Every structure is written in C-alpha cells, then in structure tokens.
Amino acid sequence: MSANTSTRIGFIGLGIMGRSMAGHILTAGYRLNVYNRSRDKADELVARGATWCDTPGDVAAASDIVITMVGFPHDVEQIYLGENGIVARANRGAVLIDMTTSSPALAERIAAEADKKKCYAIDAPVSGGDVGARDAKLAIMVGGDPAAFEKALPVLQRMGTSIVLQGGAGAGQHTKMCNQIVIASTIMGVCEGLAYGKRAGLDLDTVLKSIGGGAASGFQLNVLGTRIIKGDFAPGFFIEHFIKDLGIALAEAHCMQLDLPGVSLARKLYEQLAAQGYGRNGTQALFKHYEK
User: Fold this and answer.
1) Which residues belong to CATH 3.40.50.720 in the chain?
2) How many Å apart are CA 143 and CA 130, to the nearest integer?
3) Of 34, 55, 254, 262, which is the most buried if we count CB atoms within 10 A?
4) Where in the chain is the domain with CATH 1.10.1040.10?
C-alpha cells in the first residue's frame, strides 16, 4: 500500500542497517531526503528517487520526520545539537527519531531541546541486525511523547514488526541496554558451546540441528552460530559498536549500583579483539577468542 507521498521523511546514516531501512521508506512511497558522511552510500537511493542533502541540518529543514541511524553518542550529539544541526533547523511540529543505540541521558537532553523548538524527539533504537533491517522485521524500542509516537508509527512500521512505546524520553535507550545485556552473555555462550563441540570432534552443523531447535535456540545461536561455523565474520553489527553499547550499559548500571559481571567480561573480550584488529568484524567474531 502506498504511503502518504506528501509526508517528507529525512534519513541520516546509511550504513549496514540504515541503507536498508531508508530503502523500505522509499519503497513505501514517501518523499525521502538523505544524508551520509560518505556520499557514495546514498547513490543507490538517489538513483531510486531520494533527494540528497548536503548536511544533516539541510535534511531537517526539508523534512516532516527525521530519522537518524549513526554510530556513536558523540555523532548523535553533534548532528542534533550542533550549530545548524537537526534541532536548530527542524520545522515546527516535526518528529525527530534517533534510532542509534545511544545514551539515555542524551536522548532526554535532545527531547528537551526539541521541545523548546516546538517539535518532538523520540529515541527508537532497534534490534535485529542486518537481517532484520533487510527484511523490515526490526524490533523497535521507543521512548518519548505518546502523540509523537503515534505520528511516527506508520513510518516505523515500514522498518519493523515489533514496535513498543516503553515510556518517556530515554526509555527506548534503556530498553536497548536490556537487549544488549542479554546478547552479551548469550553470544559468549554460543561461542563457548561451539568451541566445546569443535574440540570434542563433533560436526558443528549436526550439533546445530539438535541444539538449534531446543531450549538454546535463538538468533545468536541459529543465525550467528551458523555464520561462525561457516567462518563468516562479516559484520551484521560491528564489534566496535557493541563495545560502545556495553560501555553505556555498564555506565548506567554503575549509576544504579548494579553489578553486571557478564557484560564486564564480554566487553573485556571484545576490547581484546578490537585491539587485535577485529573491531570492524561482526560480533560473532568473538569465536576467534576461543580458537586460540
């Protein structure tokens, strides 16, 4: 079904996931404005009818809804709150949606600044990796004003299937931290189970046929475990970005006086891999630690 073509959508950040997400919006019939630091990543979308903008601020000025999917909290802060950034140039009543995994406190700050400009900002980080982005089956965790959420929902539905308003500004980011905390220990378990099976002389494809359908089943085992067995460590989600996420989770947990030993160990192991040059590999490359 075609979307309301009078609604102008801006999309900033066309990486592994963002490019697919923006593509779904364009396919739905929305008018799409795009920006990415490396312009060549926008070429395919522009060829399909998207409009290139020279800066994030230009995207905001030309759009009714602005979506961002960038790398790190400092990137989010710069493009939203910098001089001539998104908030400074957003239209009255616009909805600004940050889908980057970022700091809950920064999400609250952006929402407060957007409110001063008579527009809305919601945090809507996602889970599902490159596969979820490609198939428009992302889980989207939202924090912000309920009215803004309802306005954004038709667009979010073009990218995901599980879209839940978790609470006020920052609640989406806190929920994403729950997600990353669960993943941190789960991917360690996947790698350790497969390392054990390999050392025991088992055929790992056959192992996966059994344990992939039992209580251990899930995305980390069935999807990333399959990639591990094939020796495929291409990124669906970068190790360097996961280290960033785990750092945010540990900082928030520290403020709550909550000890998370699984997250602490996972971050330590991933930092070791990044130091060895694997930071741009996918998170399943943790298996390399156990291959030593």
Assistant:
1) 8-168
2) 23
3) 34
4) 174-291
Pull the structure tokens for residue 122.
């919601």
DSSP 8-state symbol, 286: G
CATH number attached to the domain at 174-291: 1.10.1040.10
Give yes or no for a contact between 241 and 71, defined as CB atoms under 8 angstroms apart: yes
Instruction: Flag whether the pTM goes above 0.90.
Output: yes
Question: What does the alpha-carbon distance between residue 242 and residue 282 come to, in Å, rounded to a whole number?
Answer: 9
**How does 191-212 read in b/e, with b if 16+ C-beta sit within 10 Å?**
bebbbebbeeeeebeebbeebb
Give 143-190 pLDDT, tens digit per residue.
999 999 999 999 999 999 999 999 999 999 999 999 999 999 999 999
- Local confidence band at 5 (pLDDT 50, 70, 90 cut-offs): low
Distance CA 135, CA 40 (A): 23
The catalytically annotated residue of 41, 118, 137, 176 is 176
**Structure tokens that stand for 177 in this block:** 């931290």
176 a catalytic residue: yes
Comparing C-alpha atoms, which of 107, 77, 99 is closest to residue 24? 99
Cα-based torsion angle of the residue sequence 46, 152, 80, 101 in order, rounded to the nearest 10 degrees: -90
Q: What is the pLDDT of residue 4?
A: 61
Q: What b-and-e string marks burial along 119-143, b requiring 16 or more CB atoms within 10 Å of the CB?
A: bbbbbbbbbbbbebbbebebbbbbb
- Can you tell me the distance from the alpha carbon of 42 to that of 14, in angstroms, rounded to the nearest whole number? 7
pLDDT single digits (tens) 82-115 = 999 999 999 999 999 999 999 999 999 999 999 9
- Nearest alpha-carbon partner for 97 in 19, 28, 57, 151: 151
Rg (CA), the chain: 20
Instruction: Report the C-alpha gap between 288 and 292 in whole angstroms.
Output: 7
